[in-house]
Amino acid sequence: MTPWILQALNGLSMGALLFLLASGFTLTFGLVRLVNLAHGGFYLLGGYLGLSMLRLTGNFWLGLLAGGFGIVVVSWATDRFLIRRTRDNVLGQVLLTVGVAYVIADVCLLTWGGNPLRIPQPEFARGPIDLPGGLVYPRYRFLLIALGGDSEPSTGPDFCRGAVPEEGE
C-alpha cells in the first residue's frame, strides 16, 4: 500500500506545480481579458534571474525577490510598449505574446545556455518529512503541495473571489 500512497503524493505535488504555473494564465485572462501566451516565458526568465541572484549572493530569499522584481519590470515593459497596441485584437495578442515567448526563450538560451540548471533547495526545504504510517517523503515536495493548495482560491485564501466580472458586465 505504501507505493500507492507515495505515488499519490507525487501526483499531488506535480499537480500543485502545474496549478501554480497555470494560475497565472487564468488570472490574466479572467481579470484583464488578455490572452498572454508569454507567461511561461516570463516564468522561465524569472527563474533564471532568481538563480543568477542566488549564485551571486548565496541568499535564496534575495534570489526569489530578484526573479519576481525582474519579471515585474519585463512584463510591465511588454504590456506598456507592445501589448497595449493590440487591446482589441485577440488574434494579434496571441501572435504577439507567442513571439514574445520565443524571444524570451532565445535570450535565456543565449545567456544561460541549453543545459539544465538546478536551483539548490533552501535549508528549510531540505531533507525528509515523517508522515503518519511510517512514510518518509521529501520536504520540498510536501511544501509544494501545501503551497499549491493554499494558492487555490476554493481551498485557500479568498484573495480573488468575486474579482472576475460576470458575463455581460
Folded structure, characterized:
By secondary structure, the chain is mainly alpha-helical. Helices cover 64% and strands 5% of the residues. The protein has helices at residues 2-32, 39-57, 60-81, 90-112, 139-151; strands at residues 128-131, 135-138. The protein has a two-stranded antiparallel sheet. The radius of gyration is 19 Å and the shape is globular. Residues 154-169 have low confidence and may be disordered.
Order of helices and strands: HHHHEEH
Question: How much beta, percentage-wise?
Answer: under 5%
Can you list the strand order of the major beta sheet? 1-2
Number of strands: 2
The domain tally reads 2
**Structure class:** mainly alpha
Spans of at least 5 consecutive residues with low confidence: 154-169
Helix content: 55-70%
Largest sheet: 2 strands, antiparallel
Rg computed from alpha carbons, rounded to a whole number of angstroms: 19 Å
Shape: globular
- The total count of helices amounts to 5
Let me know the average pLDDT.
83
Q: Span between N and C termini?
A: 51 Å
In short:
With 169 residues, the protein is mainly alpha-helical.
Q: Any descriptors?
A:
two-stranded antiparallel sheet, 2 strands, disordered C terminus, 169 residues, 2 domains, mainly alpha, single chain, globular
Map the helices and strands.
Layout: H1 2-32, H2 39-57, H3 60-81, H4 90-112, E1 128-131, E2 135-138, H5 139-151
Antiparallel strand pairs: 1-2
Helix pairs in contact: 1-5, 2-3, 2-4
